[in-house]
Amino acid sequence: MPQHTLAPRICGNCDGFATATVTTGAHHADGTRKTLPVDCPACKGTGRTLPASAPASALVRR
Ligand SMILES: [Zn+2]
What we know:
Layout: E1 9-10, E2 19-27, E3 33-39, E4 48-49
Antiparallel strand pairs: 1-4, 2-3
Bound molecules: zinc ion (ZN).
């Protein structure tokens, strides 16, 4: 009898791309852009959804 393991589900909010990098508009002294990493608010940067701990606000019902 096969055992079913809970496979990690890809976060539907960010589609697995849990951390985005945004530019601040400022530049470093060497000319490169200053960036900030921003985690997905739904999965907290994990890229996965955990059904047991998914907040109700992450569920969109229409
Ligand atoms: Zn996410």
